[in-house]
Amino acid sequence: MVSEQAPLVVQGLRDLQGLRFTVVGAAGFVGARLCATLQARGAQVWAPARHEPWPWLAPLGHVIYCAGLTADYLARPFDTVEAHVSHLAQVLQHGLERGSLESLVYLSSTRLYDGQGAGLANEIAVLPLDPANPRHLYDFSKGLGESLCHVAGQGCARVARLACVYEGPQDADGFLPALLRQVLAARSAGVARVEVSSSPHFARDYVHLDDVVDALIRIAVSGRQPVYNVASGANVSNADLFEYLACRWGCEVQPLLQTVPSSAPQVDIERLCSELHWRPRALFDALDDVLESCQGARAC
User: Fold this and answer.
1) With a threshold of 0.85, does the pTM exceed it?
2) Which end of the chain is less congested by CB atoms within 10 angstroms, N or C?
3) Cα end-to-end span (Å), the chain
4) What's the domain range around 134?
C-alpha cells in the first residue's frame, strides 16, 4: 500500500481527481483555505455546516477535522470540549460504523509541548499537562481528541500538531498579523516607528497557511504515522522579527516589555519532511513576498 501511494507524495498530490474529502470546520482559517485548495486540485469536497442535520449520510472519504477554538477557549470551555472532543467522537464513530471513512486527520497544536522547556519536541514526547492550570483546558481537550484518534481510530486516524499558522496582515487573529498591520499602517502614515506591548525575548514557530494545507493533504492521503508535527522547525524570536521589519520593511519596532519567558522547545519536523517529502518555507522569505505584494498593490 505504501509503495502505491509513494508517487502521489513525490508529485505533491497536485491531482486529487477521484478522491473525496470531508472538511469539518470549513468556515475557519485553515478549513476555508483547505477547501479551496482541494477543489482547485480536482477533489470532491464536502464541507458540512456547523449545524448540519445528523446523521451524515454522505460518504466521508478523507476527513480533515479543523473544528476548534483558540483565543476564546477559556471564555467558552463547554464549546471548546464540544469542538475538540465530543463532535470528533461523533464523526469518528459514525464514519467507522458506516465504513465510509478512509482516513481522518485531527488538527491539534504544538502548544502541547510548551511545558517541556528547551530542547527538541518530537511526536513521541510525553506531554506535560496540569489540570489545575486554566490554560491547560485547551491542551487537555486537544490531548483527549488525540487519544480518541489513537484508541478508537482503528488505524485510520492521524494527528497533525500545528504551530503558529499565518498568512499575512489580513489574518483575523495572532500576534504576527496584528504587528504587520500596525507596521503597514505606520508606513502609510509616514511613521518610521511603532510600539508593541510585547517582549523581544518571546519566540514562536511560524508556519505558513499554504504549507499547512499541503501538509494536511499529504497526511490524509499518504500518512502512516499516528502523529505529525506541522511547523517550520525553527523558533523566531521577537528580537529577530523586529530587526527584520526594521531592515526590510523600514519600520522600527519598540517593545514595551522586557519579560524573559522560559525557553521554548524546538519543534521537530523530521518525520513529516522525510516520510512525506514536505518542505515549509522560512518566515522571512514568506514575509518578503508579503511586502512585495503590498508594494505592488500600493498598500504601503
Assistant:
1) yes
2) N
3) 51
4) 2-166+207-233+264-283
